Amino acid sequence: CEQIIQHLNHKIPGVNTAELCQRIQTSGIDINVGELAKIANIVSFLFSTAARNSLSAEELITTLGNTVSALPKHAVQVIRHVWSEQGKSVSVSEDARNLATVGQFVDIKWKLGVAMSSDTCRSLKYPYVTVMLKVADPSGQITDKSFEMTIPQFKNFFRQFKEMAAVLETV
Amino acid sequence: MAAPEQLPPPPEGSKPLSALLNGIAQATYYGNADITEELLRGQLYPEAAPEEFRALRAKMSGLLQSIASADMDLNQLEAFLTAQTKKQGGITSEQAAVLAKFWKNHRVKIHESLINRSRWDSSLKTMSWRVDLKSQSRHMDQINTPVAIVEMELGKSGQESEFLCLEFDEAKLSQMLKKLSEVEESMTGLTQTT
């Protein structure tokens, strides 16, 4: 819950579900990353809806109780506690929806390789760059996206980012 | 690649062979499924018997495959073709000349098509970007902050693309540029290929 509030407040780019899942598992609870991601999404939606409607902790819990019947008591208590402590700091404005599909760049890893041969060509000698982007999607999940570029593609990629930086400086 | 004007004009009889090689390349390397053996025989060697044509086509395909697989440079090509003219059941020096000219003109394109066959991971198909000025924000300190919004189209060949849309502020752009410079630096260590 705390990580989700931090994410909604833009203090962190996202919820590191993989890491959280490991921590939860080591404390003896059986859960997989997919399930944890769903829970994170639901709680995030809960908190951002509460923020948008400026609900107090009591109002949030009452509404929750009216719509969802099977929530365990301690889960409700945790939600109420986190919301009453930190709910006021979350304010979700309308333009958030415009950026709904934009993710946050977190990190980049790269590899430069040369493919020597293949089943269709004995002498390939083809250099390429593989890039792994760490991305936080709008709901806060951090995922890795990897892709390959030829050398000319990479040079173009680099050039575009330099152009972006130049434009950003003049704005 | 040698400019065609520098080579002596090919004798008349080589035109069908040149077209045959073209047809073979279309079918084998450029993915043109319409070029069948029948079509080629009918258009280029109408007087030849089917088995005779099949043998010619197989021989030329085989030679082209050896040349393409080794991505031969001019020296290797000359040595290879000369050896083929001296072989029993090999090729004539006229045919060798046609093959040489064909390879000079098509080497890069055929090599590229072979490279593409071994690219199985997602690649960057297109990329576009714009710079936005954040005029409204949840946090006062983000007012009038320029950000770059980048859209990358990723995908494997033949499959639907995934569009990745990312936001970069100045700090993140610097981070990106720093890493990309590292890549460029290590590229200078690569020996030049074609």
What can you see in these coordinates?
The complex is a heterodimer of chains A (171) and B (194). Chain A is an alpha+beta fold and 171 residues long. Chain A folds into 2 domains: 1-99, no CATH class; 104-169, Nuclear Transport Factor 2, Chain: A, CATH 3.10.450. Chain A contains 6 helices and 3 strands, in the order H-H-H-H-H-E-E-E-H. Chain A has helices at 2-8, 17-26, 33-52, 57-67, 73-86, 151-170; strands at residues 103-115, 126-136, 142-150. Chain A has a 3-stranded antiparallel β-sheet. In chain A, helix 2 (17-26) crosses helix 3 (33-52). The longest helix of chain A has 20 residues, at 33-52. Chain A is elongated, with a radius of gyration of 22 Å. Chain A starts with a helix and ends with a helix. In chain A, 22% of the residues are buried. Chain B has 194 residues and is α+β, with helices and mostly antiparallel strands. Chain B folds into 2 domains: 13-118, no CATH class; 122-192, no CATH class. Chain B has helices spanning 15-28, 37-44, 50-69, 74-86, 93-117, 170-187; strands at residues 123-134, 145-155, 162-168. Chain B has a 3-stranded antiparallel β-sheet. In chain B, a hairpin with a 6-residue loop joins strand 2 and strand 3. The longest helix of chain B is centred in the middle third of the chain and has 25 residues, at 93-117. The chains are: A alpha+beta (171), B alpha+beta (194). At the A-B interface, strand 1, strand 2, strand 3 and helix 6 of A face helix 5, strand 1, strand 2, strand 3 and helix 6 of B.
What's the domain count of chain A?
2
Instruction: Spell out the helices and strands of chain B N to C.
Output: HHHHHEEEH
How much strand of chain A? 15-25%
Oligomeric state, counting identical vs distinct chains: heterodimer
Tell me the major beta sheet of chain A.
3 strands, antiparallel
Portion in beta strands of chain B: 15-25%
Helix content of chain A: 40-55%
Protein name (chain B): COMM domain-containing protein 1
InterPro entries (chain B): COMM, COMMD1_N, Murr1
GO biological process, one term (chain B): copper ion homeostasis
Domain COMM (chain B): 123-191
